[in-house]
What we know:
- With 303 residues, chain A is mainly alpha-helical.
- Chain A is built from 12 helices and no strands.
- Chain A has helices at residues 4-24, 41-53, 55-58, 97-106, 121-131, 137-140, 157-169, 173-176, 218-227, 243-256, 263-270, 283-287.
- The radius of gyration of chain A is 24 Å and the shape is elongated.
- In chain B, the strands form 3 sheets. A 16-stranded antiparallel beta barrel of chain B has the order 3-6-7-8-9-10-11-12-13-16-17-18-19-20-21-22.
Amino acid sequence: MMTIRTTCLCILLIAMATSIALAQGSGISSGYPTPRNGFSASEQVGHGIYLRYCVLCHGVYGDGNGDTAQFIDPKPRDFTIATFKCRSTPTGTLPLDTDLINTLVRGVETTNMPSWRPLSDENRHDLIAYIKTFSERWKTEKSGEPIKIPAEPPVDIASIRRGHDLFQKVECWKCHGQQGHGDGPSASTLTDSKDQPIRPYNFAAAGNDARFKCGVTNEDLYRIFMTGLDGTPMPSFADVIQPNDAWDLVHYLRTLQVNRRGEENRVLKAAGGPAALKSAGDKQSANHPPAAPGEIKSPGGAN
Amino acid sequence: MPSRFCVRGKQPRPIHILAALLMLLLILSSTPGYAIPAFARKYGLPCSACHEAWPKLNSFGQNFKDQGYQLNNDRDSPIWMNPSYWPVAMRITPHWHYESLGRQLVDSGDGQVEQTVKTSGFDLTGIDILTAGTLAKNVSFLLVPSIDAGSGTIGFESANVRLDNIKGSPWLNFKFGKYELDTPLTEKRIMTLSNNGGFYQLWHYAPSGDINDFTVGENQLGVEMMGHSLDDHTRYAASLISSTNGNLGLPGGRSYDGYLHLSQAFMAGKLGLQRVGVYGVTGLRPTYFLTQDGVPIPGTGRGNKSFYRLGAYGNLYIGKFDLTGVYQHASDNVFLANATPANGELPEGAQGATWNIGTFEGHYVYSPKHFILGRYELVRNSRQPLSSLPSDFGNVDVFTAGYRFYPFINSRAGFAWHIEFSTLNMVKTADSGADQRSNSFFTGFDFAF
């Protein structure tokens, strides 16, 4: 007759053996749909990682309709249309793998997408490989060529003034507002490519560690408005702004981040502050001078 | 002065066994661990994002914790939360368990005899009430009220505030209050729940009769300075803690304990993240108190004597399999080890106690839904408190195996079926001088919401 101890041991062993056997038959990540045939080893691994980390927001089918998507604003990316905000490639083209990996590492500011820096490089590559299986575009199109970014010229008041003029000329203020608060006259009407309301980026709300959706550096900011954020109302200005002029806009936009201690704000302050920009003769500027440091009207939401 | 152990040959006094049992009871009555669905709800992430299998953290979860329960984006501040959000989670495990304790002394017609005591029944673990999150960006907190399942007494297992990323640097964080020491194997996220396997010998073992109450496993009162690289590969944690072993009130010995933990991780290709580290803790404990009418006066501890614990470990990942090996050397001053006041006379043959502990814990995470665990712990006394004791007296071997099945994974709640067996052998601790073996079998439903 078996003792209770022996019985317990038997139960434990049988339970473990049964569970392992069941698990073996349920695909790479048991309990979830088994990966479709034809997946590469990397895609198979990526599938498991996707189910662990991503599926709840981006959904089993990668369409951005995961269980928690209804609670998230902005909505998770729909991988089935292969449209990505953060790219080094021209608008309308597919991003490089490194663009997607950079997004994973960095996260996407002002959204629920966190930084996945703790994942290993291998895991990130596998994950990207799997994400690319959601859209046929990856099979029929090649990634675009990265845009060329000229070396950044020194920051001076002349550059900031030219950037200010450019800001008026290409009507950035219509969405971002004259003071960069994201409260321009068009702001409330903006929607993304899936008709979801979307808010323009609020430059003034950024602190000293200011981050954009697609990076933190001046080069990242340059890239953002020269490639555009596909899937959002933020267009590419590559056809409107000359490459070297784009640096002027970068320098001016940095002055809208009034709480940031940067070279641009230091140069502007030394030149007399926002009043120094009025000499550019822009009427819009005269009517709506850029905010002085500390004059933040509304904290919070930005896109 | 005769040896304390010579009263009944080489056996410990019943009071020591009682003390050991009380310590075991204390350990078992503590809440089992942290798994905080409130975080999953806040960020909309599944449990599996932060836990290899909850409550065990993965590298992403460890990074989240090290950043002060923050993802380091603009959603960290509570201002982003829906006003109805309340950062509270609860966890409890209704279960059935079987216990057998070998060679227990029981009364019989002919005096006392040794026999194995066996019992089984349905039971509950202590409840976790976990409140944690951010008070503001880079100001985080953890509050864990604990309710003793037996007496209903309410205490605070954890209560701390942490200033995160001071000066914008992940290398400088301060935690203040009652908290778990930053250890290589955490009992607050232990994957085993049985009476034998639900705690680490590593953090609780002490030689029989030792009056040093310090245990690494108890949450401590103090301040921690902690830092880490952005990817968490390099970590350090240094703590200055009251010498109360986490109990409230002023320290008895008017001294502080110090703890330091350093670790470095590196990627090994497709194998995954490997980590090695060292840790150490040292402190003092009083051996007697000033008295008033013969009653010890709190806070007047005198005759402080020292102790230390030093350890090194490696955490090896091979894909879905991971193995952690920890070696620890421990030492208690001769007065502590022999429960003798520093102004008193030591028993004959008294010596400082030293012992070594090895812990090997392996996990196989087939998927976030299937988790298999095996653990082997061994305690080897290298110097007994009394030279007359057998060199292997009180040595311990524990083997634990378990499996957890998570039928679903979402951002609202966690649920797991848990099954575990653990067997423990203590050398020569029975009254007859034979080994004592105890077995635990545990199965139940572990849930958190």
